[in-house]
Structure formats: structure tokens, C-alpha cells
Amino acid sequence: MKKVITYGTFDLLHNGHYNLLQRAKALGDYLIVGVTTEQFDEYRGKVNINDSLMARIENIRQTGFADEIIVEDHMGQKVEDVQKYGIDIFTCGSDWVGEFDFLKPLCEVIYLERTKDVSSTILREKNRKIIKLGIIGSGRIAKRFVPESKSVAGINIEAVYNPNFESAREFGERFELDTYTDDWDLFIKKIDAVYIASPHNTHYEYIKSALNAGKHVLCEKPMVLKKSHAEEVFALAKKQRLVLMEAIKTAYAPGFLKLLSIAKIGSIGKIYDVEACFTKLTNSNTREFKPEENGGSFTELASYPLLAIIKLLGKDYEDLRFDSFTDKNGIDIYTKAHLKYKDSIATIKVGLGVKSEGQLIISGSHGYIIVEAPWWKTESFETRYEDRSKNDKFFIKFRGEGLQYEVNEFVSMINAGNEKNQFKLTAGESITIAGVIESFLDNRTASRD
Ligand code: C2G
Fold first, then answer.
1. Handedness of CA 244, 438, 296, 254 (dihedral sign)
2. Are the C-beta atoms of residues 294 and 201 closer than 8 Å to each other?
3. Measured distance CA(161)–CA(159) in Å, rounded
4. Which atom of ligand 1 is nearest to the CA of 20?
């Protein structure tokens, strides 16, 4: 019996897939089809898959060509499968010519001509209109955002707004945007959604203006500096039936999501303590050191540690305390914050003028999890125990600057209408973060007086 194997995502199963499976089956007597998991596709840089794994498997089954369907979930699996199943022929479309020649010592490799003018990407684009995005602000983070957002399908940056025209022009020309302007009305008319990357103080007004104009909003952290402002803007987004998301990139990254799952299944027992540190030595003539712009370590960096703490211990802390070192203008160059919960505690260390190890440690009754620096770009972590033989290591790729994860989530939230549950960073969690930042600023003002 001649055994053939082929692999693919098979999203929105179409003629190209059907033709390929038909010819693959005709190459032998028994056809095995490997269908990729979402995680494996994400790992190999394929995002925005429409159909679930189960739906894709069912579609393959219904073609009647597959004698066996397996799941492909890791690199190197093809070599394992060819040996395990005693495969005679490996086949796939001609878009992969040469890529799988490494299988030649194990079996025959045949690249079948790809069917022209049909692909899952074309179908996905047809089903969905491209979201036109405008950027508010043209500083450092906005410059990193543009190249990253290009790897996400379904969104295109059309315009940049800055009240300082020269700054908008320089940014617009550099990134070849159709519109760069200091005219708000012109800007807002051109787009469906905004990414707010302006100084902290300006976020609140921009969010309200954009939502009132019917635009979805992705806003840099800290989204707002007051709990009541956060409550107000989320209520407005709900009323307008628009997406409002805080751009804390870690919240949407696969490594961090995996870390949360591992912590929450009780792998280290009951969680008693979370310690998260983020320091970034920064030149003192930047915005971060300006009191009038609410600069300082806490407003600048604490969103990340707060995300980890609130995700792991919840929103209902009972007590909050801050210790800071400030510069001559009253800007905190280092802050240590303590959050006390009913039966757990947490510490935040943030610094713009003090350097420390950027790690996250979650301590539990059975063991602890250590996420190595920079933990906010979560890529690897370990669960450690008294009995070292039980220790385990996890590795999940973190792509680029990680901004593509938040853009991807933003796009899929918009496309889902109101049907998708935003669990990665909820409105309530963003409101809690704003509340902690507000307490910090109140505290700082009081200690200055
Ligand atoms: N295909 C085709 N004609 C098309 C579109 C796709 O012949 N118009 C083929 C592809 O070449 C591939 C199969 O259909 O062999 C599945 O395509 P995708 O779903 O796009 O999956 P792909 O990313 O190519 O999976 O392990 C995964 C595989 O290595 C590749």
C-alpha cells in the first residue's frame, strides 16, 4: 500500500485545497492529511485564521479524500510523521517548492501545481473590509507601531494626526501615508479606527472625541490617569458599540497568556505573592521627566506590572502603598508599590533612574514561577519546586516588538462586532489600573505640598 501525506491550515476550504487533496489521494492508496493548530500557525507567522481547528478538520473529512486526519502542532513533526506512519510520498502545493526537500532521504517529495487565483487570504479579504487606521501622535512608540502593524492582515494605516503639523508631515512622509495633518476634522473623516500614541495627558480627550465620531480606539498605556475617566470612556464605547482597548502589548502576547494559564491551573498551588519589576534608564530631557506631562516611573511603566498582578490576583486589592525616590522636579525616578489583597500580596518596582532585574516572580504554596527579564516580552518561564526534578521550562516565541499582537486583537475585536468576549484585558481591569495610577498621582501631589 502506497501511503501519502500532506499538510495545511485549510482555512475557508476552497477549490485550491480540494484540487490538491484530490491529486494527493490519486498519488497513492492511503492519504493522511495533517491539519495545523492555531498555535502552530501563530508560531509560523500565520495569524487571522477564520475557522476553528474542528471546523477545518470537518471540512477535510467532508471532501472524502482523507483516509486519516492528524493534527500538526509543532516544528519537526513532518520528519516524525513520515517515519511513524511509514510514508512513501510527501506532497504539497508548488508555493512550497524546495522547502520540504529535507524529507527526501525519508520519502519521495512531490510539489503539485498550485491552483491559480484562489487562496484563503483572498477569501478572507473578500469577506471583510480593510480597517482604515489613523494614528494620533507621531513620537517614538508610533514609529515602532507602523512596521509592526504591517504584519497584520485586515488593517491599513491611512493617516497621522499631530497638532504640530511639521511633526505629522515628517512622520507621514517617512511612512508614506496618504494623509498627514493637524486638522482633526479632516483626519477623523478618513478613518474607521484610531491608535492613540500621544502624551498621557491627552489620551482622555482624544478617546472621547474619537468614540463620539464613531471610531474604534486602541489607546497607548496608561490609557487614562483617573478611574472615573476610565469608567466614563468604557461606558461611552459600550453606548457607541465601539471597541476600546488599552494597548498594553503583554496582555495580548501568546507567552503571557500561556503563563497565566499555567499559573491558574494550580501548578504552583495557591498564589501568595507576585513581584514584578520594570526599569528603563531614560535620558532626563525626555517627556518621561516632565511633571507637566505627568511623567515619572510609575505613570510610564507601572501598567505592565499592574497587568500581571491584576490578572493573577484580581481587581479587589484592599490596600495600596508607595515608596519613591524623586528628582528635583518631584518626578519619581524609582517607585516601589505594595498591593495588599485579602490573602495575597504584590510588589511593583519601576524605575527610570534606577536599574534592576526585569523579572516576574509568582510565589505559591507548592512552588514558584520565574519569568526572566524582560518578562513583559514573555518568551520563556520556569515552574520551580522544592524537588528540582519536577521543574519545568516553557518557551513561546515573542515576535518583534510584540505590538502586532495588540493590533491583531484589535482587528479581530472590530471584525467580531460585539460578539467576541474581550478577556485578555477587560474594561474592568483597565479601570482598576487607572485607579492605581490615580492613587499614585494623588499621593505624589500630597507629598509635594
Ligand atoms: N494550495 C493549492 N492551491 C491554492 C491554495 C493552496 O494547491 N490556490 C495548497 C497549498 O500549497 C498547500 C495546501 O493547499 O499544500 C494547504 O494550503 P494552506 O491551507 O495555505 O496551508 P499551508 O500554509 O500551505 O500549509 O504544515 C503546514 C504546511 O506545510 C503548509
1. negative
2. yes
3. 7
4. 7
Give bridge partners of residue 133 from the DSSP assignment.
157, 193
Radius of gyration over every alpha carbon of the chain, rounded to an integer in angstroms: 25
Phi, psi of 255 (to 5 degrees): -65, -40
Closest C-alpha residue for ligand 1 atom 11? 93
Question: What are the tens digits of pLDDT across the range 220-255?
Answer: 999 999 999 999 999 999 999 999 999 999 999 999
The β-bridge relationship of strands 3-8 and 30-36 is parallel
Q: What SS3 class is residue 408?
A: helix
> 3-class secondary structure for 94-140?
HHHCCCCHHHCCCCEEEEECCCCCCCHHHHHHHHCCCEEEEEECCCH
Ligand 1 center from residue 417 Cα (angstroms): 29
Beta carbons of 243 and 216 less than 8 angstroms apart:
yes
Cis peptide before 147 (omega within 30 of 0): no
**Ligand 1 pocket, mutate which of 20, 22, 79 (most atoms under 8 A from CB):** 20
Which tens digit of pLDDT belongs to each residue from 146-167?
A: 999 988 878 999 999 999 999 9
Nearest-atom index, ligand 1, CA of 78: 26
| Phi/psi at 345 (5° precision) | -140, 165
Nearest C-alpha neighbor of 318 from the set 337, 347, 345 = 345
> What's this model's pTM, rounded to 2 decimal places?
0.85
| Residue of 435, 438, 426, 48 whose CA lies nearest to 244 | 426
- 3-state secondary structure at position 215: coil
Whether the CB of 10 sits within 6 Å of ligand 1: yes
